[in-house]
Amino acid sequence: MKSQVLVDMDGVLADVYGQFIKMEYRDSGIRLKREDLCGKSEEEAFPSFNRHVREAGFFRTAPLMEDSVEGLKLLNDKYNVLIVSSATEFPGSLIEKQQWLNEHFPFITWEQMIFCGRKDSIKGDIMIDDHLKNLRYFEGRKVLFSQPHNMCVQDQMYQRVTGWKDIMEML
């Protein structure tokens, strides 16, 4: 039986930091840099966070993380992959996230998409996520995808990756 790999969407497949940076510049003229956001939560880093995540098109037009299509295809061929996204916090994101996945990852079927609130009840062998709150209670192998908000974390419970090339080499 194939191992089950749970893959987060925002911050792992979708470059939401790039999306926030672009929208913050569009709205305020402030050009934020990723390196200046280290150690800050997304709500702290982006003054218009709450408005942007509720804006129509935010999730639908998010850029791809580099190498994510190739990396997810490789995982999907080798493992039982499920995309697990905390989408119900922003109900408007549900259809946008599904459309985004269908466009960029056509090899992922509707049966492989789990849109939920908390992820602590989702079971699998490996979880790839950028948020500690999602990995903390996971019982399998925990892979922390580097993003500015988690750069201060130096916990041995998590295996850190800096991008999809690391994931492809590791798995």
UniProtKB/TrEMBL annotation:
Species of origin: Parabacteroides faecis
UniProt similarity note: Belongs to the 5'(3')-deoxyribonucleotidase family.
Pfam families to which the protein is assigned, alphabetical: NT5C
Phylogenetic lineage: Bacteria, Pseudomonadati, Bacteroidota, Bacteroidia, Bacteroidales
Protein name listed in UniProt: 5'(3')-deoxyribonucleotidase
